[in-house]
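Write out this protein's structure.
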Amino acid sequence: MTDALVQLRYSDDGGENYSNWRDMAAGATGDFIRPLIANRLGQTRHRIWEFRDTSGYAMDILSASIKAESA
């Protein structure tokens, strides 16, 4: 069985234009606590995030957090 994918994209202009979708492996069915990590997302202010699940099964995102580091 292949892993489900959660895809992420973002907009820096209020939702007019979005980045390309980024795939993150969400694990197999029953893999309940799996962190999804996306690195190298650049810098911004007032970013809009959009997620989608491609598995075809019900999935809930329980929380999200951002770890910001200065260059």
